[in-house]
Structure to design on (1010 residues):
């Protein structure tokens, strides 16, 4: 056993010592793997980013009420009175001014994107005072919150970065009027940051909505009072609503987009991975053939096949590991936190997010690289070990 | 020597090689005339410049100084492109280690020089078959080099060298890698080509018995002609 | 031509290595072709957009409706040929993930405006005469396995019926084909009259207008004229060419074209590295062989050509195979099961693929070919 280890160490040391001669092919295989890993991690980080945005949107113990049958806030709608009844249901946390519930409107306005100058659909949400408390991470980072009753807006960080004309002090066109932007808010990286907020009553006027709302966002007193809250509303014959946790709602919303990107991203990664495997195999076969004489000499001297296989595999894995780390590192440097916006098919409006290169993805990338390195090294290793020594010694 | 019969005329040839900053003088002030139809052997210790001389006569290299004239044509000042064309037409090469293409079979190896001509595919095939017959390997047309013995491979090499009916046949240690018996067969073949077909052959060798087959032997040492032995 | 057998034979020298390099190249071009199809899925609408069609919508927001009354005013504008309207139905078939686009249209005018939705005269007649009949695209029909005569129930959260329910049911009157590749066949068209009668709310309002202009060169001008007609009214409009409107959506989805180009470039660079390195290594190994060829009489240029030729043959085989497989995979259909409206490899991208094959062969082969060209015979020849 100890002898085997010594052999492995000797052979491996020997092979690594000759690595500089094969620098060209080793470097190219390594960079090839780095490229594959970087692309894979980069593409999947888009899906992660969207998922992150969606999941950090859902506050703990938060619930949403929509009209039954509606699949999004946009297609939902109920009258002001019904909405008030919803806020009075049991189970909600109470604040100093009443239940922590916000009756809300959801509309879309057009604003030009900074990147292309063409119009995008930007969500404009009318909220009540409690909204800032319901979204636990809500914080004004510049300027101030809008005054209830006044026609002014605050914009989310994401929205401000993606769309033009949303700096504090400028105005945006809502309906036929110009409304000033008075502040910028952050919300823990959640989806609210893609939105523009204003007072619900004022927005109703601006969009000629009368006294109707589209959703109610609220915080439960404690998460286990969810069923109590839900049953009270669904059994009320005056109301026609569906109740769900915010987490449920947002995960459903992002499903289509997340699936789309993950399916495409994975498909690309698999195809590229195959390409990388072929490249790695090529490199390792070449590396092995360059060392045929050397390996045969070792074997002729008495080194066993096992250590030879291990040394070839070790070289391949090392190349792959370094390539994988470079690729993952590149992806992290280039993509992590990169802000972008895309169309949320469900709400038909923009969702801003940041590419998220998290630890899970980095690990996945490196594991992927190691798999490529293993396959790329295994077959050449076996061949190196099995070529008859006499034949190998003769080869030039 | 009858001046009009001179095929190869080497005059005042020097050859200097540069190895880094060092200069190595391999040939110095060499003069040599070879008549048409001669079988010449070049002998000498290693480093004497015999292979270098062969290369210069074959147009594989250029002298640092002096002239090389073959069949009335000066080849030392030809462009690379013209020299390649000249070699294709006028020179057949036989190497110590045969230098056959391992990926081609015997017939295709012999056809190789014919690819440079305008002959049709069927013509090439015919000529290759003839050449292989001359060297006695008609039954091995389709075999690959790895399937042939050393002697057989060298015969394919010779067939390749004569398939274009060249002016000169240059052989660099043609029996160097063969055993006595196979070597003798090759030398027999070369002699026959010289005797029956009038081929001018220049052969570099370190084997005296091989040199005995030639009509004239020149000894080189340190880049100069030392002795001449005529049979 | 005669050198082909020499090139092929040389490639067979190290069969495994040649095969692996070929497979790597195949993968690169497979990816290229497949991504071209994905890119088309996101951007095709822009290419087939009619140059003579404008979209007039509510200026305030896409989700606000426009009054029917606007129609006559738009017709008055000089250069306007035809005006019809669309309304987004937004119905759900069984569950939200089965999403497909449904538009409420004026059947006759709509088909005239969109000749790319192909229906035979009989099919048109059967639609026009069917009050609750809808027309669907062939792609949609394939997705849910629907045929003419099937009844499709939709839940419409936006449009309730006068009787209070949100359940609508339609009969499939006909199935349209796209006039060319790139036309979206995943849509459903619902007749306006039936819709208007049955809907609760939104009387006298529609989603947006589609305007055909007689002179496409004046499209931008006419768009301005239309918007000016409604400036300062209760319902101001925003008019733009159809292509610009669709491009706006593509931009919102994200600069897909750029992302895909970036991925493809990364892949090609990677493949280049490995293939180029393999070729260089192979040429180094064959130094002696190449010297012999030169000794026999092959010119420097000839040997350069041989190495480049090998590179081209290898790349062409790998690339051709890759594009072929991509084409086959794409023909098998949209991998996302319906999210992409169209899915095919445009001819221009195939042509680009062929160009890239040649370019790749050159870039990969040129350096090894040059060193082969410059090889000195006497240095390289083994004695």
């Amino acid at each position: 056993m100890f002898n085997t280890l010594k052999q492995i160490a000797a052979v491996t040391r020997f092979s690594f010592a000759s690595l500089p001669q094969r620098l060209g092919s080793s470097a190219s295989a390594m960079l090839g793997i780095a490229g594959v890993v970087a692309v894979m991690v980069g593409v999947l980080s888009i899906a992660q980013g969207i998922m992150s945005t969606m999941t950090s949107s859902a506050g703990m113990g938060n619930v949403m009420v929509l009209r039954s049958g509606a699949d999004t806030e946009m297609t939902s709608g109920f009258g002001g009175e019904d909405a008030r009844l919803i806020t009075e249901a049991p189970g909600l946390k109470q604040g100093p001014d009443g239940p922590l519930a916000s009756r809300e409107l959801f509309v879309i306005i057009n604003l030009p994107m900074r990147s292309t100058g063409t119009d995008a659909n930007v969500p404009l949400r009318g909220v009540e005072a409690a909204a800032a408390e319901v979204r636990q991470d809500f914080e004004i980072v510049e300027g101030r919150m809008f005054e209830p009753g006044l026609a002014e807006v605050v914009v989310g960080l994401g929205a401000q970065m993606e769309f033009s004309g949303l700096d504090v002090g400028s105005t945006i066109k809502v309906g036929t009027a110009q409304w000033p932007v008075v502040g910028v808010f952050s919300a823990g990286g959640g989806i609210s940051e893609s939105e523009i907020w204003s007072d619900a009553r004022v927005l109703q006027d601006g969009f000629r909505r009368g006294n109707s709302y589209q959703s109610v966002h609220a915080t439960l007193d404690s998460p286990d009072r969810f069923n109590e809250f839900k049953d009270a509303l669904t059994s009320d014959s005056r109301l026609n609503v569906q109740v769900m946790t915010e987490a449920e709602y947002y995960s459903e919303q992002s499903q289509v987009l997340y699936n789309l990107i993950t399916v495409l991203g994975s498909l690309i990664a698999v195809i590229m991975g195959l390409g990388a495997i072929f490249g790695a195999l090529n490199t390792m076969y070449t590396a092995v053939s360059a060392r045929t004489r050397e390996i045969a000499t070792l074997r002729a001297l008495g080194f066993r096949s096992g250590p030879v296989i291990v040394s070839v595999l070790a070289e391949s894995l090392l190349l792959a590991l370094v390539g994988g780390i470079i690729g993952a590192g590149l992806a992290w440097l280039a993509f992590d936190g990169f802000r972008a916006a895309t169309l949320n098919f469900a709400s038909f409006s923009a969702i801003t997010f940041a590419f998220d290169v998290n630890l899970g993805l980095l690990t996945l990338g490196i594991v992927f690289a190691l798999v490529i390195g293993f396959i790329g090294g295994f077959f050449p290793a076996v061949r190196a070990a099995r070529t008859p020594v006499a034949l190998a010694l003769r080869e030039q | 020597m009858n001046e009009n019969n001179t095929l190869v005329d080497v005059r005042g040839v020097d050859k200097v090689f540069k190895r880094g900053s060092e200069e190595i003088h391999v040939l110095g002030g060499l003069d040599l005339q070879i008549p048409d139809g001669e079988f010449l052997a070049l002998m000498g210790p290693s480093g004497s410049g015999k292979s270098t001389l062969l290369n210069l006569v074959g147009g594989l290299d250029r002298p640092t100084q002096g002239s090389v004239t073959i069949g009335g044509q000066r080849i030392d000042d030809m462009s690379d492109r013209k020299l390649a064309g000249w070699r294709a037409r006028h020179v057949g090469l036989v190497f110590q280690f045969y230098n056959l293409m391992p990926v081609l079979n015997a017939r295709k190896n012999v056809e190789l020089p014919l690819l440079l001509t305008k002959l049709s595919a069927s013509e090439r095939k015919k000529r290759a078959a003839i050449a292989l017959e001359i060297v006695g390997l008609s039954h091995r047309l389709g075999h690959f080099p790895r399937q042939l013995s050393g002697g057989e491979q060298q015969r394919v090499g010779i067939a390749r060298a004569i398939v274009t009916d060249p002016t000169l046949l240059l052989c660099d240690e043609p029996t160097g890698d063969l055993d006595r018996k196979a070597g003798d067969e090759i030398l027999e073949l070369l002699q026959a080509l010289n005797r029956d077909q009038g081929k001018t052959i220049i052969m570099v060798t370190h084997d005296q018995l091989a040199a005995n087959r030639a009509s004239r032997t020149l000894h080189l040492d340190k880049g100069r002609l030392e002795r001449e032995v005529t049979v | 031509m005669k050198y082909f057998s020499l090139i092929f034979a040389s490639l067979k020298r190290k069969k495994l290595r040649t095969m692996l390099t070929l497979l790597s190249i195949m993968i690169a071009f497979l990816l290229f072709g497949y991504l071209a199809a994905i890119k088309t899925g996101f951007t095709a609408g822009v290419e087939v957009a009619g140059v003579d069609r404008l979209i007039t919508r509510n200026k305030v927001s896409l989700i606000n409706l426009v009054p029917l009354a606007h129609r006559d005013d738009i017709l008055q504008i000089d250069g306007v040929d035809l005006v019809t309207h669309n309304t987004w139905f937004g119905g759900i078939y069984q569950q939200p993930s089965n999403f497909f686009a449904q538009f409420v249209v004026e059947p006759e005018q709509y088909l005239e405006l969109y000749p790319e939705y192909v229906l035979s005269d009989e099919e048109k007649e059967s639609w026009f005469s069917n009050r609750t009949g809808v027309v669907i695209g062939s792609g949609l029909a394939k997705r849910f396995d629907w045929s003419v005569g099937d009844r499709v129930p939709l839940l419409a959260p936006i449009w309730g019926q006068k009787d209070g329910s949100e359940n609508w049911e339609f009969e499939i009157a006909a199935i349209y084909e796209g006039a060319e590749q790139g036309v979206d066949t995943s849509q459903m068209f619902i007749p306006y009259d039936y819709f208007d009668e049955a809907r609760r709310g939104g009387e006298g309002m529609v989603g947006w207008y589609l305007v055909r202009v007689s002179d496409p060169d004046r499209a931008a001008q006419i768009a301005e004229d239309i918007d000016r007609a409604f400036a300062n009214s209760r319902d101001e409009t925003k008019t733009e060419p159809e292509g610009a409107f669709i491009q706006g959506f593509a931009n919102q989805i994200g600069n897909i074209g750029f992302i895909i180009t970036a991925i493809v470039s990364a892949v090609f660079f990677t493949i280049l590295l490995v293939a180029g390195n393999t070729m260089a290594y192979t040429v180094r190994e064959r130094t002696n062989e190449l010297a012999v060829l030169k000794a026999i009489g092959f010119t420097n240029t000839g040997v350069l050509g041989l190495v480049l030729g090998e590179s081209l043959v290898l790349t062409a085989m790998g690339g051709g195979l890759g594009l072929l497989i991509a084409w086959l995979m794409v023909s098998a259909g949209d991998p996302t099961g319906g999210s992409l409206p169209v899915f095919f490899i445009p001819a221009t991208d195939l042509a680009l693929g062929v160009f890239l094959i040649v370019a790749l062969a050159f870039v990969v082969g040129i350096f090894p070919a040059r060193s082969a060209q410059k090889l000195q015979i006497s240095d390289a020849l083994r004695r």
About this structure: Chains A and B do not touch (no CB pair under 8 Å). The mean pLDDT of chain A is 84. Chain A has twelve helices and 16 strands. The first strand of chain A starts at residue 62 and ends at 67.
